[in-house]
Amino acid sequence: MPLGLIALALGGFGIGLTEFVIAGLLSSVADDMGVSVPTAGYLISGYALAVVVGALTLTPVVNRWEPKRALQVLMVLFTVGNALSALAPGYAALLGGRILAALAHGAFFGIGAVLAASLVAAEKKAGAISIMFGGLTIANVLGVPMGTVIGQQWGWRATFAVIAVVGVIALAGITALVPAQPIGRADRPNLRSELAVFRNAQVWFSLSLTVLIFGGMFGAFMYIEPLLTRVTGFSEGAIPWLLVLFGLGLFAGNLVGGRWADRNLSRTLFGMTLALAVALAAFGLLADYTIAAIVLLPAMGFFGFGATPGLQMRIMNHAAAAPTMASSANIAAFNVGNFLGVWLSGLAIAAGLGWGSPLWVGAGFAVAGLAVLALAGRSERTRTPDAPERELATV
Questions:
Q1: Does the global pTM surpass 0.70?
Q2: Measured between alpha carbons, how far is residue 352 from residues 140, 282, 345, 346, 355 in Å?
Q3: Which of 130, 309, 325, 361 is deepest in the core (most CB within 10 A)?
C-alpha cells in the first residue's frame, strides 16, 4: 500500500473529526458562548453549507495547481480554521473558524480521491479511495468519543486545539509521503471544461444517488439517540458504546465496499442500497427490541457507508474530463443529503409520527436511490446500446 494513502487518510481523519465532534460539545459551547443550544447547532449546519460552497467554488481554483501543492494549501486552511476556533473570543468568531475549515473539506476529498486512485493499479482504485475515506470513518469510531472526552475534561477549546495539531501532522505526512504529480500547461483544467462535465446526465444520476443514500442513512442516524432511549429502552450511559457500534459498521462497510466496488461497481451499489433500505425498514419494525437494535445499528452504518467508494468511483468514471470537480461536487452532495435527511426526518417527528419515523424516511430515501440506479442504467444502455460489458459495469 502506498504510504501516501496513509497521509491522505490522516487528513480525512482530521476533517471528519472537525465535522462531527461538535455534536458532543454543543451544550458546553452554548454555555460558554452564552447562546442557546439550537443557536449553537448552527455550528453544524453552517459547516455543512460551507462544505458545499467550498466544494463548488474552491475546487476549480486549486485544481489548476499540482495536486500535492493543492492538498498542502487546503490542509493549511483547515488547520488555521481549527486554530481560530480554539481561540475564538465569541460565537461569531467560532462560526467563522468553522466555516474556514469547512471550505477545505470538499476540495480536499475531491482532489484526494483522484490522487489516491492514481497511486494504485486500475483494479484497486475504489479500494484506494476507501482507505482515504477510512480516516473519516475512524474519526467516527474513535476520534469523536475521544474529542468529546477531551472537551469534557479540559474544555471544548482543547478539542479544537488538538484537531489543529492533527492538521499539522497530516500536512507533514502529505509533504513527506505523497508524491508530486506535475501537470503541464496543456493539461491544466479550465473552468469551462470543469463545468462541462455537468452536461452528462450520468453525473447528475451519481449526485442524486449520493444525496439519497446519505440522506437516508444520516437522516435516520441523527435522531438515533431518542429512538434508542425512548423506544428501545437503553439508558443514557449505553449510548456511547452503541455509537461505537455504528462507527465500526461505517469503518467495515467502507473497506468492504471498496473491495467489492473494484470487482463489480454496479452490483455493489445496487446491493448496498437495497440492503440499506431493508436494514432501515427492519429497524423501524423492530425498534422495541434491544437485540435487534444492537444488530441493525451497525448494519445501517455498514450498508450506508459501504456505498461511498463506489459512489466516488462512479462519478469519476462518468466525468473523466474533470474527475476532481465532479468528485468534489459529490462531497457537496453528501452534505446536501445530510441536510435534507435530517430536515425531513425532523418534520416527520414534528408531525407526530414517532421517534421511529426517521428510519422509515431513510428507507424511503434508499428506495428512491434504487429507482435512480435503475433509471441511470436504462439511460446508459439507451445512450450506448452497443457498449462493451466493461463500460456498462460502471453504471
A1: yes
A2: 30, 20, 11, 10, 9
A3: 309
